[in-house]
Specification:
The chain is an alpha/beta fold. Helices cover 49% and strands 12% of the residues.
Amino acid sequence: MNKKILIVEDDQIVANIYRNKFSLEGFEVEVANNGVTGLNLVQTFQPDAVILDLMLPQMTGVEFMKRIRSQDGFQKLPVIVFSNTYLTNMVQEAWKAGATKCLSKANCTPKQVIEVLKTTLNINGAFGMGTVAPKSTSQTGAEKAPAPARSSNGNGAAAPPAPSPAMASDAEFQAELLKTFAQNLPPTLHTMRAQLQSLIKAENEAARLKYLQELYRRIHALTGNAAVVGLAQLAHIADALEALLKELFEKPKSVNASSLRTVASTIDFLGLLFERGLNSKQDLCDANILIVDDEAISVRAISHSLQKARLKSQSVQDPSAAIDLLDKNVYDLVFLDIDMPGMNGFELCAKLRTMPTHKKTPVVFVTSLNDFDSRANSTMSGGNDFIAKPFLFMELAVKALVHVLRSRLAPPRPAAA
């Protein structure tokens, strides 16, 4: 008897891809697009394992697990959770609620998920690959072939065509998925920009929350889709932006000119990264970042933000010592305080720009000064961006990721002396 898998995922494109891949592996598959439907299917479908997205409409994945773990017969049902890499608190809640495995949605391909699923179910080898896939029922219970027709994901994007057993390889299927993703990305980004403009123009908090939630759902879907088609860096950025939008939704008073500017620039960069960074295999974890700030608390806050983005950094309090470091090392990104003893951040940035190695190195000013003159001086001295204190950790993390990746897309710089 084939093993039965329940996928609880609200993005139709992602759900269809996983249903097709699991079906071709010989699993019997059902899909629920929200937590409430998923709970009902657990009772009626009696799955051997559940693939669960944490961010669902009507009921979160954490609440879903709490409910099924409280029911007789489902305390040990394997539940493999899809999470946002940056939502560590929610991932911890998922573990406490009884998750069997927690996977990062931005970093996992369908093939990797299948391997985890087989290991969890103690299945050795592909017992169904190349065989005729079993029939799968829809959410309403009607019989349906496992290869669904093209459908919408609710956002106007067409679902990718179902794979045929006649396909020569996974590579062909992956290429087809990438083609579909490429077709859908421009209108998706256009819609995101329109939603952001509506958010900026919103006249009250209720309207802002509505547009934030809509924008968040779009980014949430984009994160999963980018991971499925193998665009790891695009998924990485979208994953971080998704976490920032969630935090803004939960803390609406943090919606300000700085955070909105970060969201806007990141959405624009997603399109640029897709156009120019498809073949980039560089690991962001090896990025080298310098923090120059004479306030210990500020340095800790910046370092913590960078750690959330899995970026390493070193810090120095003395601007003169920073010049020595910059002269001897290549950095992917520099964070500068403005008000420092002996030499302010604007002066340090101007000196930095005279060094061959750092003519194009991204520089972000982190400052409590948020007036027009400070903004103008940051640009005139050669700065690329600035963020005002106090800042959201996730906002700085998103900025850092964007600037590091943008730097990686530029031509190689000369080595340090």
